[in-house]
């Protein structure tokens, strides 16, 4: 090949390189099309298998709504960690399913993404806990741990501290009615007033911490840790004010029973129920710099950054951006390789 390159004129060498590049692009395109066709075929086969099983149970008689026997009402989820002999272990389940009379289902996520979108988490939990025809069931796939006790419970929103102060627009302990008679927030901080002391910033952490007295102990590290734990484990979703539309969009996708149509309602401006702070003015750099020196500011800001990172993580796995707009992802998992086969 090297000898041919030396003997070929430069123009022919260039043409050969271009031809090779075009051929590689063509092959890559064909491979991608084959992958897409394979994925569609797998989904079609999986849907057919599910329909066959449901039809078989329908022919056997009306579905029994009575509670299943404890041994029958059993679901095992094997969230397979790659390169841990997971295939060998899964094959054991497939080999035993007919003999021991249970079903094996592979959880196929798009591109083997181990993180499900928020809406897929809801679908998945509802699906496998109520799919009596597949019980007892052994589900396996490259999916990260999912807490099945987690349900639509608490929702909330957090706010960045400078913007939150701007929304208040006056010393932290005062009412709007007294605004005309009193100093501005910047003046209060500059003079070291008690109404705008750093302790007044202790707000979001105790709200997420709860009703324990320690939650309201200003500056408590335990309260901070408990607030973070509750945000992750007890809240269905926590949004941020700066990205409120995305928060609404996620809720509509995951909880349509309550939030169907909420995104359009928000976008069209028909949201008079949302309070708007007039004359929103950020505190001066000097004010923020002084408050940032306090331990309370640092803790509240740490909690906000924690909540923001979690929200953006959830959003990244639930939406995609196209031409500047966000779109909710469709369902990205399905079941396949369902055994034993129906007769």
TrEMBL record:
MF GO annotations: sulfotransferase activity
Cellular component per GO, a single term: Golgi membrane
Coiled-coil spans in chain: 24-51
Presence of the UniProt keyword Glycoprotein in the record: yes
Signal sequence range: none
Pfam families, per the entry: Sulfotransfer_2
Location within or outside the cell: Golgi apparatus membrane
Listed transmembrane segments: none
Keyword annotations from UniProtKB, A to Z: Coiled coil, Disulfide bond, Glycoprotein, Golgi apparatus, Membrane, Signal-anchor, Transferase, Transmembrane, Transmembrane helix
InterPro entries: Heparan_SO4_2-O-STrfase, P-loop_NTPase, Sulfotransferase
Protein's membrane topology: Single-pass type II membrane protein
Subunit architecture: Homotrimer. Interacts with the C5-epimerase GLCE.
Family: Belongs to the sulfotransferase 3 family.
Described function: Catalyzes the transfer of a sulfo group from 3'-phospho-5'-adenylyl sulfate (PAPS) to the 2-OH position of iduronic acid (IdoA) or glucuronic acid (GlcA) within the heparan sulfate (HS) chain and participates in HS biosynthesis. Required for metanephric development of kidney formation, suggesting that 2-O-sulfation within HS is essential for signaling between ureteric bud and metanephric mesenchyme.
The name this protein goes by in its record: Heparan sulfate 2-O-sulfotransferase 1
Organism of derivation: Sus scrofa
Phylogenetic classification of the source organism: Eukaryota, Metazoa, Chordata, Craniata, Vertebrata
């Amino acid at each position: 090949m090297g000898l041919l390159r030396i003997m070929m004129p430069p123009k022919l060498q260039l043409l050969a390189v271009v031809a090779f590049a075009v051929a590689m692009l063509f092959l890559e395109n064909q491979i991608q099309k084959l992958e897409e066709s394979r994925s569609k075929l797998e989904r079609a086969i999986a849907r057919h298998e599910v329909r066959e099983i449901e039809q078989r149970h329908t022919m056997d008689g009306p579905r029994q709504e009575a509670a299943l026997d404890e041994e029958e009402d059993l679901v095992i989820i094997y969230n397979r960690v790659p390169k841990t002999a997971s295939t060998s272990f899964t094959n054991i389940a497939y080999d035993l399913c007919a003999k021991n009379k249970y079903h094996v289902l592979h959880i196929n996520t798009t591109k083997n993404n181990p993180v499900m979108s928020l809406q897929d988490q809801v679908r998945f939990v509802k699906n496998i806990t109520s799919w009596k025809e597949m019980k007892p069931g052994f589900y396996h796939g490259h999916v990260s741990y999912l807490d099945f006790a987690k349900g639509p419970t608490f929702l909330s929103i957090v706010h960045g501290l400078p913007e939150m102060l701007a929304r208040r627009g006056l010393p932290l302990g005062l009412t709007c009615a007294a605004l005309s008679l009193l100093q501005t927030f910047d003046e209060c901080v500059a003079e070291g007033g008690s109404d705008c002391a750093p302790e007044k910033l202790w707000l979001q952490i105790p709200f997420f911490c709860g009703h324990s007295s320690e939650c309201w102990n200003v500056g408590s590290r335990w309260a901070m840790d408990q607030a973070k734990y509750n945000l992750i484990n007890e809240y269905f979703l926590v949004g941020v004010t700066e990205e409120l539309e995305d928060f609404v969009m996620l809720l509509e996708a995951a909880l349509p029973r309550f939030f169907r149509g909420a995104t359009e309602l928000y976008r069209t401006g028909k949201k008079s129920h949302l309070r708007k702070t007039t004359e929103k003015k950020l505190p001066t750099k000097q004010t923020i710099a002084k408050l940032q020196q306090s331990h309370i500011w640092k803790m509240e800001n740490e909690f906000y950054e924690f909540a923001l990172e979690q929200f953006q993580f959830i959003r990244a796995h639930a939406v995609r951006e196209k031409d500047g707009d966000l779109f909710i992802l469709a369902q990205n998992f399905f079941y396949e390789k369902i055994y034993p086969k129906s007769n």
